[in-house]
Amino acid sequence: MHMRKPLAWLASSKKDYMNFPEDVQDEMGFALDTVQCGKTPAIAKPLKGVGAGVYELIDDFNTDTYRAVYTVQFENKVYVLHAFQKKSKSGIKTPQKDVDLIKDRLKALKSHLEEMKKKKD
């Protein structure tokens, strides 16, 4: 049996997530709980172009699409990097500004974790 990993929210991701409709929060909350238990939920798919271990939860609700991006690259926690409502009506591709934001937050997280590790050593 897997130990349940804690969930950590980066930057504004929790606030943004809390602004999602309640049904979307329920669906994604269940999915994040699944991730914390070491499994991959049905609504998750790898986020291309960001690196291994980064996934996107996708939920459509009332013609809108909501996404939460998380990483399981680090052993100790599940990190939610970004939560947003996809505005673009053309295609399913994640908007570049959101991809850039996710990459920046992931890079900052890696730097932070490396600094913390150095302090422990």
Summarize the topology:
Elements: E1 7-9, H1 13-18, H2 22-36, E2 44-46, E3 54-61, E4 64-71, E5 78-86, H3 96-120
Parallel strand pairs: 1-5
Antiparallel strand pairs: 2-3, 3-4, 4-5
Plain-language structure description:
- The chain is an alpha+beta fold.
- The protein has one domain (7-120): 2-Layer Sandwich (YaeB-like fold).
- The chain contains 3 helices and 5 strands.
- It has helices at 13-18, 22-36, 96-120, and strands at residues 7-9, 44-46, 54-61, 64-71, 78-86.
- The protein has a 5-stranded mixed sheet, with helices on both faces.
- A hairpin with a 7-residue loop joins β2 and β3.
- The radius of gyration is 14 Å and the shape is globular.
- The N and C termini lie far apart (30 Å).
Features:
121 residues, alpha+beta, YaeB-like fold, 3 helices
Helix content: 25-40%
Supply the CATH superfamily name.
RelE-like
Main pleated-sheet profile: 5 strands, mixed
CATH structural fold name:
YaeB-like fold
Unreliable sequence segments: none
User: How far apart are the termini?
Assistant: 30 Å
What sequence of helices (H) and strands (E) makes up the elements?
A: EHHEEEEH
- What is the CATH architecture annotation? 2-Layer Sandwich
Summarize the structure.
By secondary structure, this protein is α+β, with helices and mostly antiparallel strands. It has helices spanning 13-18, 22-36, 96-120, and strands at residues 7-9, 44-46, 54-61, 64-71, 78-86.
